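Task 17 of the worksheet. Students: predict the tertiary structure of the chain below and write it out as structure tokens. Keep your answer in the requested format; marks are given for formatting as well as content.
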Amino acid sequence: MSRDGIASALSAFTKQDSSSEVFSEEQLSTDLAQFLSNPTLRAALADGSLDLTSYSSTVEGELAELEIQCIDAYRSKTQEIARLCKDLDHCDGVLLGVQEMLLGFQADLGGLSGDIRQLQETSKRLGVQLHNRKAAAVGMREFLGRIVLSPHLCETITEGAINLQFQQAIKELSRLYNDTHCKSPQDWACRKPPAETTAGEEMQEHIKQLRLIAVSRIREYFFQQMVLLRKPQTNIRILQSHGLLHHADLYAFLLDASPNVAQELFKAYTTRMSNTMYALFRTYQAQLIQLDATKHAATRQDVLAVEDAYLRDSITTKAKKRVDVFTLGSRASVLNTTHEPPVVAHVALSEQRTYPYERLLKSCLQHLVDAVTNEHVVCRQFFKRDAFDSLFPNSLQLLLEQLENYLFGCYDALCILLMIKVIHQFRKSAQSRTIHSLDNFFDQMTNLLWPRLKTVMEIHQRSIKQATAVSLGGVDLHAHYVSRRFAEFTCSVLLILQKGNKQAQSTDRKSMASLKRSSSQTSQNREKTNSSSSTATAGDMLLRDLNDLLGEYIGLLGRLAEEHTVNIKKIVFMINNLDQVVCIFQERRVAGGKELNRVLELLMLQRELFVEEELLHGFSKMIAFVQQTETSLASGSVNDKAVNYQVVESLVREFASNWRTGMESINRNVLSYFSNFRNGMEILKQVLTQLLLYYTRFQDVVRKVFKKQQPDFAKDLVPTAVILAEIKKYALSI
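Model answer:
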């Protein structure tokens, strides 16, 4: 390295060193802090052993030595430093060329960014145009879709079959009609009324013409379905379901497009369906009448107190095969449920089966309620209204007329009462289905039945009231046939009233009015009774009629009993008849009411009379003595001297010798008088028990009269234990 190069390097180093001598305050603070961080220096400064002057000289000498060493180092690396300077100069040239090239690139890129900016603006403008075109296309498509008829839609309506696709086309046509005739601004029509647009006005006429074609085709289709209703063996339910209800939307279209045609279809349906219903019920009723097992069951002569001549004739003729109008039997099963399958008339005719009339009425009402329910559902879903008044007046009138004709010759009170209960059940069944249109029809039926039932009850009551021993063929000790008829009839009526409800209730005031008008034909006493209980139900009035019938029956028993000349036979006759009534009540398991209680009270009274009467036959002297002497003892006017000793002795000895014979006689009489063994044994125990009581009272009287000294005949008194043992023998033989 040359001397000039070394000098320049040293001058640069000197400048750098001289510039480093200028210390700032911050640099000084930093150096002092670094100086004090040395623990040796800090300790020397603290104890004063450090001489700063000598220390500074030492440092300067070291720095000078280092400076010389650096210069030597630079001298030893002279060539390398020179080569490094050349390299730096070459690099400066290269960097300068790169800088010029980059400045050229920068100029070129500045031109490209302008082009890119222009392209971005163009792209944004085209994007906005494309968005607007798409929005316009969507709006135009929606607008045209709402007002323009498609070829497929027109073809489906004009030529397509009436099916689900046709219904969808009709819905689309209705929507097009509503859209093209809309006079309020719509968003899809650019917030303008569609009816005022050019396209809307142009399409209105085409849509109207297509609607007329649709109305014509729908009308033709429905009229074809109406014609099928009158064809024989047509399943109306399936026709209604598949032919009408599946196309209910088409009728809704007619209501909007052509109300006149819709009304025409409604009238056509109601007319044809009404005629069909009438024909079906007329045919069904005609078949049911052939199945009636009770059409000859009861006549005007079939009353409780029937004359003996007619009764004998009915036994010897085919009339004995008729249904018993006084015994309920299995007829109450008609009240079990309203869901029992109805009678299939043609099958029953082929099998030669018969049914009571109330079962036939129930079957007919089942079909009626089901038909009314079905038509209610069909008309509500299809015609959007109820058509009961147009569909069923003829059918209901037919049923009422046939019921009225049947009631003209009906004297079967049980049948009438069962029909009332059946009607009440179907009224509740219809109301549970929210079908109230049949209420008036049920009212009319009950208005026919209650007065007729009242009339038949009065006929029975009048027959009992006017009956005599001669008309009934005489009397004997056994139960009269009138008693069995009365008991069976009363039990049957009570069982019907208790079936399902404790008491039959009338469902409206109209039937009560009819019943009261009928009851006004009775006697003055009955009129007063009815007026005093005007608020009673029809069931209450029927129970009152039963009570009156019971009163007439008891009166008849009294008149028939008077035919016997012997008092005990009168009593036996009453007991046998009353006991038969009680037995039938028990056999039929009828809940005890005031009717049964009244009969039981009268039976107990007659039994007591029989006990006294029977004891008077064999022990009248002893009974008379006991009764007279007890009365005198009560007044204190009797003693041993006032009583005839011989009379008492004879009574004691007579009883001691005859009491067993008397019991046997009582037993024979009871067994011969009473056909009901259980009733006879109860009466026998009652008689023997009363005999024991009389004899016990007789012994008490003897002891009281002869209390000072027992008479000699006292040893002949029969001990009560012996008599009681004998009574037990009869009891064990029962």
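Marker's comment: Residues 183 and 390 are 39 Å apart (CA to CA). The chain is about 75% helix and 0% strand.
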